Amino acid sequence: MSALTLPEDDWIRGISIKQPWTAAILTGAKTIENRPRPWKPGWVLLHAGQQIDRSALRLPLVARTIQGRQLVTGVVVGIARITGCHQDPEGSPPCSPWAHPGSWHVELADVQELPLPVPARGQLGPWKPAPDLLDQVFQQLPGFRP
After folding, report:
1. pTM given for the model
2. Which residues lie below 8 Å from residue 54, measured CB to CB, with a gap of 6+?
3. Is there a contact between 49 and 118 (Cβ–Cβ < 8 Å)?
């Protein structure tokens, strides 16, 4: 599939996430991504940022979830659909074992891992992927339909 057959409007963004959190999302176990601000629903490229959150590697939940996975950085590793975004009510239990109190919880679904990671810079906050990056990503997902 080429980018020419995809919607031409502003339909997809990139989200940069440190490892090992990106790897946990790709397993399907981590369906909540914590952010300081809310995000709009829609499709996102999952970008493994340049940095690794070393302290997260010592968390049992993370270690069990990513066991055997390579922690690549500076690449797009998949796509996902944001289905919603919320904060847990004060004093309530977290919506997920992955949810951090006080953060906005970006709800992820329809995660699809790329067979080959695609190098990309990424950035903080939502970012608009270049057409050539989209071409490289969607060549690997021939059955994808937004």
Report:
1. 0.92
2. none
3. no
